[in-house]
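Q: Joint fold for the lines below.
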Amino acid sequence: MLSNQASLKRNGVQDYVSLRTTAAIIFAYTVFMAWFFISTDNITFIEWRGLFSGLAMKVFTLAALIAIMIHVRIGLWQVLTDYVKASGLRAIIQYVLNIIAFGYVAVGLFVLWGV
Amino acid sequence: MSNSLSLRIKQAYIVKKQRPVNLELNTIKFPPAAISSILHRVTGVAMFFALLFIIWAWAVSVSSPEGFANVQSMMDGIIGKVIAIGTLSALTYHILGGLRHVVMDLGHWEELESGNLSAKIAIALWIVLTVVLGVVLC
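A: Joint structure:
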């Protein structure tokens, strides 16, 4: 158990729970943004920037971006293990895609920092 | 003994040889549940790449009034509309498929008939909602 906890290896239960908890966060964010776009008639720059300037929205947005990074890490791995059989190539593709996913979070952090 | 053994090897060989291998996508039958599964994957991967555009547009639009105006005029153009409707349509299907998965996690819609029916309903709802999205955004 200790070695299992200490290692970075994931297991099926972890992936199962991570995929669903992150999906719930992304779904909540989607519903909120849909509500914002539907309820706000003419969105101006002031309103748009103002939306992301509150602390709660910054936390929510960053949480959604991190949730996307985790969700995508599992989902893309599931797809890649089915379609890319060469393990070396798969490792390279996964590496690049995971860096892009991390980039989304990093860009989001800098944007939220400046709003 | 050796006789029956050789016979069994022969039979095993025949069984192995006769096992059908069909990887031709145009001749494989896709039941609704399979289509639903593939759509869930395709929409997920599509959204991952759409995020490149979305996060760029978001970053530019909140940075300055000029950036906001640029993104706004882009979203009014044909390219912006295609990306917006495509991404929202993918998101809609991915959510519908995800909700279907939640129900299956709870132990329902796991039989052949109910699974295929829920897949058909998810796909039908997706088409309807995509049409609604297209009408609202155009």
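Q: Anything notable?
A: Chain A touches chain B at residues 20, 23, 27, 30, 45, 48-49, 52, 68, 72, 75-76, 78-79, 97, 100-101, 104, 107-108, 111, 114-115 (CB under 8 Å). The CA atoms of residues 28 and 48 of chain A lie 19 Å apart.
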